[in-house]
Amino acid sequence: MPGERHVIEPITTSRRLRFLEDAQLDALREASLDILENVGVRFDSEKALVIFAEHGANVDRSSQIVKLPRDLVLKAMANVPRRFTFVARDPDLDLPIDSITEAGLREKVKVMIGGAPVTQDFANEIGADGYADDAIAAVNVARKLVGAAA
Fold it and tell me: Is it the case that residue 52 has pLDDT exceeding 70?
């Protein structure tokens, strides 16, 4: 199926970076689907194994290897939200990242993300102004963003 495009397309950002050509993206996609389908991924969590089995994955409980059929992966990817919201403890303060731009505030508001669940690459992809591994690094990044001495 190389060259075949599904409804899944990369998220486009205001940063027009392109590191791979279409043929390279197709090859990467095919290799990834092949690994997921034929090699699998090991999960130590019994709860995860149950969830994968319930949704059609091939689960080997003795090895804890989950093999994900191509169709299952493509269906899941087609249903992933393409945008996200910064969630606050108070739901009234939740902030969809697109709303900053829509409100005309993008030049006045600095967006920082960080911590274990995210990476600098992800920060770049979503257009965040800053990224930090931990709270101490975040202070230094914030100071640089507002032009304060570190």
Answer: yes
